[in-house]
What we know:
Layout: E1 4-8, H1 20-25, H2 27-40, H3 44-50, H4 53-56, H5 59-79, E2 86-89, H6 93-100, H7 106-122, E3 129-135, H8 139-150, E4 157-164, E5 167-173, H9 174-186, E6 191-194, H10 207-218, E7 229-230, E8 237-238, H11 241-251, H12 258-267, E9 272-276, H13 281-289, E10 295-298, H14 301-311
Parallel strand pairs: 1-2, 1-9, 2-7, 9-10
Antiparallel strand pairs: 3-5, 3-6, 4-5, 7-8
Helix pairs in contact: 2-5, 2-7, 5-6, 5-7, 7-10, 8-9, 10-11
Amino acid sequence: MKKVAFIYPGQGSQVVEMGKDLYEEYPQVRELFDSANEHLGYDLTSIMFEGPREVLTKTENTQPALLSVSTAITKILAENDITPSVTSGHSLGEYSALVAANAISYSDAVSLVHQRGKLMENAYPEGKGSMAAVLGMDQKTLSNELHNISEQVDGVIEIANLNCPGQIVVSGTKSAIDTAARHLKEAGAKRVLPLPVSGPFHSSLMKPAAEEFQQLVHNIKWSDAEIPVYANVTAEKVTEKEQIQQLLVEQLYSPVRFEEIIEQLLEEPLDAIVEVGSGKVLTGLVKKVNRRANTFSVQDAASLVEFIEWIKED
């Protein structure tokens, strides 16, 4: 059997009708989605399939929705004897990776990420926090520019996501990011794009949410991961449950080091890196790190069948 890594998408990959064809075709997906509705106490499935987009995009809905689609596909692949030798995820996607590694049950994970979404949504006053993607600037230059900007503005601006070469996300107070956007363009950034998010995620402004989240994490049953998971905070493999718990808390206010994770995966003896879940965002990031990397995006019933056929080829 071919060796593959599974990587799981995070917030931003959600779309209305996500998972609908899987739900219609596979009884086990219906069972999984119905169990999510039961654990959450509301009809998440209807929001996923029908929207409206504004409701699906609410962090408390987006997070369990993305987890559910990723886990459903992982479950079908496992039933076909297809499992990853290593796994990871982007921000929220790390929870899908941990479910795949049997470090946490799906039912506990779906409830936890729903609460995580609420805490992130409420951690900072609405409209006062922001995030933006900085394109065409390397990390060292950006760090120096942010240091200069922070001395000139009354607010917070920090690196939040290191996604791939030339694509870094910053997070902080809206006023600081608005000021930084103008400054960074003058300093050589190709573009600075505001992101449609409700708060300053992966910044120090999330620390109050992390304190409350830590209690939620420790109230859930965890196991050591059965396969290695690359953690967002360290870009290193983890398997021990105590370390997993601590890193998930730190993840809320720490940069996502996804470019480093991709580089590590490219050093693994793998036949492919497979994005499992809604969208193709992570597949694009992998290609920007190494355009020759062998990748698959498994996001719906058609791509699922295609991937199963490929992996079972001699």
